[in-house]
Structure to design on (542 residues):
């Protein structure tokens, strides 16, 4: 027997409809690519998005067609998302930090028909235009005068399109399983693979992440969305912000410490989310300028493991709560968050740190487990390392065009490629990417744990640990450290700092001071590149 409730397909256009109707005057503030701060509202975003939908229909876009964006976080980018999704087309977010070859591969794989871009990215698009045969139009997110001067033949101005089309456009009315967004994984092994979100999966993810133990946004929040819309859906903020009608602040192209601090203060931001490197830049800026944070209450940090030094600096020096999150493009992206249970909240801050460093527990709507290489389910004892698996209504079932083949196991779980522990209180901790874990004498060493402790050394700016071949132990850890500007240090200082904080046999066999630790397209340490750079390196112990 079916229930007798209304059929109300969960399509994301309803989220922006809601924002317009109930939070229409709430502001969306952008540091524009052109420079000035631009203010709009959820109501205006809705109207302009509808006009843009009509423009896309006029350019021949049909349901299911892929329309790509290559853009910073801005009010305009939000308009574009809803304009594309509302008419049943697929919004394909391109990551501008990818190499041009990878961008071309992705654009061709997705067969994008239109690319909507910020001016910033015109040089690469102009240079590679002939390698994108499926792309019929380029729309530049600026006014016609600037487009006329941009040098790209045939480029259209988003402002002209918006002004010349009516806001009367019907959104939705299709199945909630309709494809809605497309985002490619960073592709650290092989070609990037496409994750094709549905309206339903994005809607569910929005509701799930809004729980107070997860993103927990409120209409009383002002949200600075630093995490890019081209990286795993900006962790859902363009949906959750609209869903609860928060004031949104979009940083545009500038994510350095000074620019972020300025927005945090002038817009009185209460909540923000970004990868650790962004916060490291902000904290360095605050220290150098004796800056204060007068409104910020909570930051969600994920994408890579949060070093203890960041959690402590936010708490001790600025009274800001850090919530650690884990997720991936394939999980929409929120997988787990490390908000305290009542038992953990009752502990002292120092005792809570151990849990804050973990990636936390899953919300209702998905589930995680650990398995060994043979697929046997492992216990939640906080000690055993296992492969982390996840399943749920907003978790990938299959990559776009079937790339990578069958990706779920017999129980319907997706293997994340991460290695983790889960403790008896249910807190999951990522110990490594499966390919980065250091296998020493048949046991596993967590590169992440060592590098996070090392990064807490007062002289360290950033640290990375890789496994290096060893004749006796298979692999042993090598610690690479980039020191803060002007600092000098010895290997012994760092080994002494690690002593007592990690098991003796985890102690790196060598410490190397480097000028740069390479970061990949999503701001994470690029271990693949480090391993390539260190291919000829031999440990002194080998
Ligand atoms: P992406 O799809 O680019 O967001 O990358 C997802 C991967 O980033 C995950 O599979 C993890 O390896 C890593 N990751 C994300 N969040 C965290 C975190 N909080 N701690 C450690 N690794 C993380």
């Amino acid at each position: 027997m079916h229930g007798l409730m209304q059929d109300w397909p969960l399509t994301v256009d309803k989220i922006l409809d809601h924002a317009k109707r109930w939070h229409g005057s709430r502001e969306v503030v952008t540091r524009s690519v052109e420079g000035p701060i631009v203010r709009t509202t959820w109501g205006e975003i809705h109207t302009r998005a509808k006009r843009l939908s009509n423009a896309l229909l006029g350019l021949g876009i049909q349901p299911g067609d892929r329309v790509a964006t290559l853009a910073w976080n801005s009010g305009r980018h939000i308009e574009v998302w809803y304009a594309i999704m509302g008419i049943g087309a697929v919004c394909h977010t391109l990551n501008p930090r990818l190499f041009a070859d990878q961008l071309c591969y992705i654009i061709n794989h997705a067969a994008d028909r239109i690319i909507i871009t910020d001016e910033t990215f015109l040089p690469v698009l102009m240079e590679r235009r002939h390698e994108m045969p499926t792309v019929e139009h380029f729309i530049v997110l600026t006014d016609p005068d600037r487009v006329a001067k941009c040098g790209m033949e045939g480029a259209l101005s988003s402002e002209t399109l918006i002004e010349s089309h009516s806001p009367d456009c019907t959104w939705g009315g299709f199945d909630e399983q309709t494809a809605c967004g497309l985002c490619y994984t960073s592709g650290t092994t092989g070609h990037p693979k496409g994750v094709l979100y549905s309206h339903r999966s994005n809607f569910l993810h929005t509701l799930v992440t809004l729980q107070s133990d997860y993103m927990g946004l409120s209409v009383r929040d002002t949200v600075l969305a630093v995490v890019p819309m081209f990286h795993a859906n900006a962790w859902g903020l363009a949906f959750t912000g609209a869903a609860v009608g928060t004031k949104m602040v979009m940083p545009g192209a500038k994510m350095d410490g000074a620019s972020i601090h300025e927005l945090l203060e002038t817009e009185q931001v209460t909540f923000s989310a970004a990868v650790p490197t962004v916060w490291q830049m902000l904290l360095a800026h605050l220290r150098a300028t004796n800056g204060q944070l007068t409104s910020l209450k909570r930051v969600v940090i994920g994408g890579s493991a949060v070093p203890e030094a960041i959690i402590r600096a936010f708490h001790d020096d600025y009274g800001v709560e850090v919530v650690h999150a884990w997720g991936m493009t394939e999980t929409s992206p929120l997988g787990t968050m490390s908000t305290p249970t009542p038992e953990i909240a009752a502990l002292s801050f120092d005792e809570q740190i151990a849990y804050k460093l973990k990636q936390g527990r899953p919300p209702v709507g998905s589930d995680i487990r650990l398995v060994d290489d043979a697929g046997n389910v492992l216990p939640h004892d906080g000690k055993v390392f296992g492969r982390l698996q996840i399943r749920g209504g907003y978790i990938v079932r299959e990559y776009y065009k079937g790339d990578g083949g069958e990706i779920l196991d017999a129980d319907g779980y997706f293997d994340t490629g991460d290695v983790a522990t889960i403790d008896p209180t249910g807190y999951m901790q990522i110990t490594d990417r499966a390919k980065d874990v250091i296998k020493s004498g048949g046991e596993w060493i967590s590169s992440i744990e060592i590098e996070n402790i090392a990064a807490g050394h007062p002289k360290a700016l950033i640290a990375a640990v890789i496994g290096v071949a060893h004749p006796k132990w298979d692999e042993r850890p090598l610690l690479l450290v980039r020191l803060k500007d002007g600092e000098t240090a010895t290997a012994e200082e760092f080994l002494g700092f690690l002593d007592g904080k990690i098991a003796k046999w985890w102690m790196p066999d060598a410490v190397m001071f480097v000028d740069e630790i390479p970061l990949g397209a999503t701001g994470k340490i690029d271990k693949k590149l480090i391993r390539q750079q260190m291919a000829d390196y031999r440990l002194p112990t080998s």
The chain has a mean pLDDT of 95. The radius of gyration is 23 Å.
